[in-house]
Specification:
This protein has 9 helices and 24 strands. It is of the alpha+beta class. The strands form 4 sheets. Strands 3, 4, 5, 6, 11, 12, 13, 14 and 15 form a 9-stranded mixed β-sheet that branches. Helix 4 packs across helix 8. The radius of gyration is 23 Å and the shape is globular.
């Protein structure tokens, strides 16, 4: 990729080998890396975040002739975008029948129109720039979860028709086993692609329009005047925060949405066994979570002999896997069993990974001006529809900044208040407050000596809490277990080998380094002289 700021992208995009603990797209596509920021700069628009939301926003604004700089603290697509299963669909996590109840029929229609427009925008952009990203038009099928009733499907079908979508009620679920005699809703003209190949093409187009990208450049101290990064200052007239969860806001937006972990497996299936398609069930009606966990499946190209079946689900609130038989490995096992039952032709699991989604309290994403700010904008709350919402984010923010009319600005406004979701809001706030009870409970292990090699946990002594990890060389990594965002106690994630906050989803490495916001700083290191409360080791 030729770039004005010296992009360093391997000519050969595809990695020849990968291990089965990696998330699929980032395992097969080499990192998209640009130069670090090395000087003070000024720009019209600063975009923070190198995922689909940030890159789409940057591209749209550059296409309007604006001067745009994009900052990414790691590399392009290294955040949650790279962990997506890349369903490009208007079949929303929030069913249209629910949107009609929470809002009204007009809002449901606007939501449907916006997502269909996003799909077309992606298709047209791929065509315009000749982006080779395995883009395919496919059909999608929504079928019943065992806990749900036929009435749910019938209501949703009628709601999709009122919303103006092209849907059809079928008597059976195509290409799925053990769903005999059960119907589904067919969503025509959906799509799929390889997300990182798409981002590479979009980044190339953005650079050709005069845009600048800096990776390994973490934006900090975001204000109405710009931000700092790598010790330098970026001055800007408009700032767009397109980081999965906003890092410019301390409280407001984090009481409107809630973080969930979601799990994914990928297994080989002989080419030609299954059609390229999207499948989703309606979600577990008996779940304790406000957001009903559901299963989602699609097929991806692998090689001349095999395709890869990618299946996800088994979601839970981040940092809250303390129920019996609900740890991370158990969730992968449940997901593998479910997938094998419905797609018996698959082989062994080749890849597995998890991701983090943010569930807005009223089911629609937040796209627009950050509450209280005139020139800071946010894109967040994507649920499981990150590809279309990320694309919409770029389209809507671009129109706001350039002064164009857009019919979707109001329904996605971050400042909206939805009174009909007050009960759900109070339920989630209650869950949040309950997490502060971890201050008064024992940790995962009574003593550091209880931790095995490669294991982490929370060690307690009264109100002192330590996040401790014992690596494979028997070295201890010790930090405070107190999240620097709002003071909750982080929890050990054995799948990702991270410490995750159960309140708002901030995540940290074994050394306490920040991975995901909304926290903006690392866990505090516990120095040797302060470790005596742990044990005598």
């Amino acid at each position: 990729m030729k770039a004005s700021n010296h992009a360093s992208v391997p000519e050969d995009d595809i990695v020849t080998s990968a291990n089965n603990t990696s998330f699929w797209f980032s395992s097969v596509v080499k990192p998209i890396v640009f130069e670090k920021l090395k000087q003070n700069v000024s720009t019209d628009i600063l975009v923070v975040g190198g995922g689909i939301s940030g890159l789409t926003t940057a591209y749209c604004l550059a296409k309007e002739g604006r001067k745009v700089i994009l900052l990414e603290d790691k590399f392009i697509g290294s955040g949650e975008t790279g962990r997506t299963t890349a369903h490009i669909t208007c079949a929303l996590d929030a069913h249209y029948s629910e949107l009609e109840k929470t809002f009204d029929g007009e809002t449901a229609q606007l939501a449907a129109d916006s997502h269909m427009t996003a799909i077309e925008w992606i298709a047209n952009t791929i065509k315009e720039h000749k982006i080779n990203c395995h883009f395919k038009r496919v059909d999608g099928y929504l079928f019943l979860h065992p806990s749900d009733t036929k009435e749910t499907l019938e209501k949703e079908y009628e709601a999709t028709k009122r919303a103006g979508l092209i849907t059809e009620m079928l008597d059976s679920v195509p290409s799925i086993a053990n769903e005999d005699g059960k119907g589904c809703i067919k969503f025509s003209d959906q799509a799929q692609f390889n997300i990182l190949l798409y981002l590479k093409g979009l980044a190339t187009a953005f650079i050709q329009l005069g845009g600048e990208i800096y990776t390994q450049t973490k934006a900090e101290n975001i204000t109405i005047e710009g931000a700092t990064a790598n010790g330098f200052t970026i001055k800007a007239n408009h700032i767009v925060v397109a980081t999965n969860t906003p890092i410019n806001d301390w409280v407001t937006m984090h009481t409107k949405q809630w973080p969930y972990r979601t799990y994914v497996i990928a297994a080989k299936v002989p080419k030609g066994t299954l059609p390229y398609a999207l499948w989703w069930d309606t979600g577990d009606s008996n779940s304790k979570w406000i957001s009903k966990p559901y299963h989602y499946v699609r097929l991806e190209e692998l090689n001349d002999q095999y395709d890869l079946l990618i299946a996800g689900g088994e979601d839970h609130r981040t940092g809250q896997t303390d129920e019996k038989d609900s740890n991370e490995e158990d969730r992968y096992t449940k997901l593998e069993n479910w997938t094998k039952n419905h797609f018996p032709a698959i082989g062994a699991t080749e890849f597995k990974w998890s991701g983090q989604v943010l569930e807005p309290i009223d089911s629609l994403a937040y796209i627009g001006k950050n509450p209280g700010d005139e020139n800071i904008y946010i894109i967040t709350g994507h649920s499981g529809n990150g590809i279309t919402y990320g694309t919409l984010g770029g389209m809507i923010i671009s129109d706001i900044i350039t002064g164009k009319e857009n019919p979707w600005i109001k329904i996605y406004s971050p400042s909206r208040i939805t009174l009909k979701t007050t009960g759900d809001y109070l339920h989630e706030v209650g869950n949040m407050l309950a997490q502060y009870g971890d201050w008064f409970t024992e940790g995962d292990a009574k003593e550091v000596a209880d931790l095995k090699l490669g294991q982490g946990g929370i060690i307690s002594s009264g109100l002192k809490k330590a996040a401790v990890y014992r690596d494979e060389e028997n070295n201890l990594h010790i930090c405070s277990a107190v999240c620097p965002h709002l003071g909750a106690i982080v929890q050990w994630n054995d799948d990702e080998k991270t410490f995750d906050c159960p309140l708002h989803g901030s995540r940290f490495t074994i050394d306490g380094e920040l991975i995901n916001g909304p926290a903006i700083s690392n866990l505090k290191k516990i120095m040797t002289k302060d470790q005596s409360f742990l044990d005598s080791e």
